[in-house]
Amino acid sequence: MENIRIQLDESEIPTHWYNVIADMPNPPAPPLGGDGKPVTPEKMLEIFPGAILEQEMSGERWIAIPEEVRDIYRMWRPSPLCRALRLEQALGTPAKIYYKYEGVSPAGSHKPNTAVPQAYYNKQAGIKRIATETGAGQWGSSIALAGQMFGLEVCVYMVKVSYDQKPFRRSMMQTWGAKVVASPSNLTQAGRGVLAKDPNSPGSLGIAISEAVEDAASRADTNYALGSVLNHVILHQTVIGLETKKQFEKIGAYPDMVFAPCGGGSNFGGIAFPFLADKAAGKKVRLVAVEPTSCPTLTKGHYAYDYGDMSGYTPMMLMYTLGHDFVPPGIHAGGLRYHGDSPLVSQLYKEGLIEAVAVAQVATFEAGVQFARSEGIIPAPESCHAIRACIDEALRCKQTGESKTLLFNLSGHGHFDMASYDKYFAGGLEDYDYPEEEIQAALLRLPKVA
Ligand SMILES: *Cc1c(COP(=O)(O)O)cnc(C)c1O
Predict the structure, then answer these.
(1) What CATH number belongs to 76-108+232-443?
(2) pTM here?
(3) Tell me, which fold does domain 19-66+111-231 have in CATH?
(4) Which atom of ligand 1 is nearest to the CA of 227?
(5) pLDDT tens across 19-65, in order?
(6) CB of 382 closer than 6 A to ligand 1?
(7) Would you list the domain boundaries of the chain?
């Protein structure tokens, strides 16, 4: 009998992260400051430690993972690669479906893969406190966990709609010792500005980032940490894809297509970029980022310089964007409600090296429930996006008779998202139309760059 769980030994945890910049056809465009000039390292050092900044700008292909970080990775890594045999049978597809399961981390998602090294490098730099934002709460809980492990204080600005929908994420963060604030809050100028215009603002990742960056920039003992989008975050997440490649090697298989949900692009880049290295070397593999139709950054956004946050505190990055002040509908996949996308993912999409599709909310929950009923694991609403796209491909294979090998990243479990499942079962979930007018209006307010 073939194994359905492909496991690696702890000693096989990667020793190096993979930096996709080394294999990109064109160098990435630099982030720009308010004056339209590339941001100086000094400016970035106000909120990031030197080691992180170095990784952010590095073009080296391989970057060593500190032993202290590998030691903590060992608590849940290597994560399993699983064959979804029962799902294949339920679908009646000749396709072979595999998933990499990142829900085995203590926080239940892939995010601790970067939270741990970020906390480590800040501790090394003598920082005492981290300020950050969180959408659905996965990043906040991951940095709370990592901060706790290195004795750092953590303050999390949590997007208000999620703060209200996901009270147990807040309890998790508090259990790991973090302070949690609903955003927009009255603790920062950015938050007070939003509340003055709209006291009932549901918040957005963009607003929460503004608050956290302002907090970090105003205190010498505090740095900022970002759970997605930036180059160093995706670098750290490549442990996912590097392990997956070893696991496929063990069984003598290789995926034809790789799917991952795409919010800011970190779990997608994490699983896909190590395969992109093979693609650069001539191998055939399709890499597909899956996003919600209500926040269709890659499929409907503009490729332009834009701010990473609502108020324009962050540098401008060249990326696919829906406009920095676009507030997406309150869908349940909170981790996918971001107006922009990783500049690396954006550039690779622009250059045609990766693909993107958008899927509607109700169909993602259908896919998640079908997956749970065959494979047992209840997926996070974000992960359901990748499952939807993967199942759709498996059903196409059923039509054509192709036995493609499909891989998706099961970026997290949904144990703290059961209120969303309740709503789905009660028939209370909606598909939001593509909010074209709002997006067009937000795009008109993109910053002007000479
Ligand atoms: C945060 C999150 C995402 C989306 O963020 P990316 O940076 O695009 O990976 C997807 N799935 C889960 C489970 C998450 O927690």
Answers:
(1) 3.40.50.1100
(2) 0.96
(3) Rossmann fold (3.40.50)
(4) 7
(5) 999 999 999 999 999 899 999 988 889 889 999 999 999 999 999 99
(6) yes
(7) 19-66+111-231, 76-108+232-443
